Amino acid sequence: MEKRKIIMDVDTGSDDAMALVMAMLDERFDLLGITAVNGNVEVKLTTMNSLRVVECCDKQDEVKVYKGCDLPIASTLMPWGPQATQMPGFTNPLPHREGTREQSIQVHTDHLPLPVPKIKEEPESAVVFLIKTLLAAEDGEITLVPVGPLTNIAIAMRADPRIIPKIKEIMIMGGGHDVNNSSPAAEFNIWVDPEALEIVLQSGCKITLVPLDATHKCFMTVEESERIRAIGTKPAILIADLVKQRATGYAQMDAEMKALNGAPLHDALAVCALVIPEVLKNVVHVNCHVDISKGIAYGQTIIDQRIRVNPTPKNCYFAFDADKDIFVKWMIDVLEKDKAKRGL
Ligand code: RIB
Ligand code: CA
């Protein structure tokens, strides 16, 4: 079976950590590298957290981590990145994302509940790694899986457009239509760097957006996570711990998730979709662009659903729904196969 060559671009983060576990343990992937970006926490922390997860999965000899951009391309919405607030002329034209840093920290902590990593990130920056790896590949050989702000990917495309034909597909966790989180109009990954997704959407690559409309269907309850904990391996225990942490955080801000005693696992769904496409439901080929006008809807993913004589060109696939049962079964299957492979 030919493995799917992928590069994970992450802002690790609790759900990014789960996505990394699944990308490293599902044997259908050839994970070429992990690029970290500013997002849930500052990029030095998203990089370190990614290293922690690589060690947790005992993949330190196979998988390397590259530190990427520490600020968005243009936006200054990020209210808490120390670098962002030191930007000249820093302004925060819109209210902070829902809740406060303290509340959101429950969903994402500066440091994952894992030992300080012994391994270090590579000296090469994420953007250089992306460009060099893609230029060395055949056309259509590598799939990019960005599950944080699109800053690294957008800057790599602008720096060297020759990488674009090398990309087989871009599977993005990001955006929202009827579901948003960082503002009434925008989802976090796009809200942090709206211009970055707009650049990627204009690239002409095959793009699938896995938005909150889909990821909120693939929530996991604390009770369900105990089935994963019972598998007993380090990666399984990490995932169970992070589901519990996320459920605690979501209970402070999302009434639906509070009632469920669970949390959406967002990023892992983008990984699942690459090996089990049927996990995504109601996937529609659409014209989508990002509001970069810096108004109240800054970062909104806007889909043109008008039935026109001359319709606007379609530039991405948008998943309006997803199948939770397929998603949870996939996670359990991969973790149980890993346990068997470890001879446990
Ligand atoms: O809105 C959800 C996304 O924002 C996820 O990728 C999560 O990790 C955060 O980055
Ligand atoms: Ca993320």
Could you describe the 3D structure shown?
The protein is an alpha/beta fold and 344 residues long. It has one domain: Ribonucleoside hydrolase-like (Inosine-uridine Nucleoside N-ribohydrolase, Chain A). 38% of the residues lie in helices and 17% in strands. It contains 14 helices and 12 strands. α1 (14-25) runs parallel beside α2 (43-56), α1 runs parallel beside α13 (267-275) and α5 (126-135) crosses α6 (151-159). The two termini are 25 Å apart. Residues 79-103 have low confidence and may be disordered. Bound molecules: alpha-D-ribofuranose and calcium ion. Residues 11, 13, 15-16, 39-40, 147-148, 173, 181, 187-189, 266-267 line the site of alpha-D-ribofuranose. Calcium ion (CA) is lined by residues 11, 13, 15-16, 39-40, 147-148, 267.
Structure at a glance:
The protein is α/β, with parallel strands linked by helices and 344 residues long.
Output the radius of gyration: 19 Å
Q: List the bound ligands.
A: alpha-D-ribofuranose, calcium ion
CATH superfamily: Ribonucleoside hydrolase-like
State the secondary-structure class.
alpha/beta
As for the number of domains, it is: 1
Strands across the major sheet, in which order? 3-2-1-4-5-6-12-9
Number of helices: 14
Alpha carbon gap, first and last residue: 25 Å
CATH topology: Inosine-uridine Nucleoside N-ribohydrolase, Chain A
Report the mean per-residue pLDDT as an integer: 91
Strand content: 15-25%
What's the CATH class label? Answer: Alpha Beta
Oligomer: single chain
Unreliable stretches: 79-103
Shape: globular
- The percent of residues in helical segments reads 25-40%
Number of strands: 12
Second CATH tier, the architecture? Alpha-Beta Complex
Main sheet makeup: 8 strands, mixed
The helix-strand sequence is: EHEHEHHHEHEHHEHEHHHEHEEEEH
